[in-house]
Amino acid sequence: MKKWKCTICGYIHSGDEPPEKCPVCGADKSKFVELVEEASEAVKADEKVIPIRPGFAPETETASGIYETISRLMAQHHAHPVSTHIPNGVLPVSFLFILMAAMFNMAGFAQAAFYNLIFVLLSMPLVLFSGYNEWKRKYSGIMTSSFRIKMICGAVVTILAFLAVVWQMFNPEVALHGSSHRGLFVLLNLVMLGAAGIAGFLGGKLVFKD
Question: Which end of the chain is more exposed for a tag (fewer CB within 10 A), N or C?
Fold first, then answer.
C-alpha cells in the first residue's frame, strides 16, 4: 500500500491515493507527496551531509541577526506549544472562580479570577508571536482551515481577556449577585475558555498527528 506525506504538517496517510484533505492541518490533496523507499533523509551541500529535521529547513550561513536567531530557536525548541500551556492551564481555573463567584456571591473568587485573567492577558503576546513564528517556519506559512481557526481563536482569547480585565477593573462586582451583567460576564469567560480549548485541540492534532 502506498504512503503519502503531507508536506505541511508531516501527517502520513496510507492508501492508493492521498486524502482529499489532511485530517491534521486541513491542507488539500495537492500538498501530499508519495513516500518511496529510495527517498534519502539527508541532503548534500558543499560536500557536507546535513541531516534534515522534519519541519525545518537546513540552517544556512546567511541567517543572521538577533531576531532571526531568536525566532529560529523559538521554533526549533517548541516555544509555541510550551507558551500555550499558560492560557490553556489558567483559563479553566479562572472560569471556575468566576462561576463560583456568580453562584455563591463570593468576592474572593472574583478577585482571584481577575488576577488569573491578567496573567493570561500578559502571556498572549508570546503565545501569538510564537504561533505565528512556528507557522511561518515549520509550516511554510500555508493557510489551511486548521491554522485559520487557530489564529481566530488566539485573537478571540486575547480580545476577550482584555475586555474581561478592563470590565472587572472598573466594576469589581460584575460577577456578583448585585450586577445586572453577571450572566453576560460569565458568558464572555465561557466563550474565551472555549476558544482556548479549540485552539489547544487543533494544536494537539498538529503535534501528535492524529
Answer: N
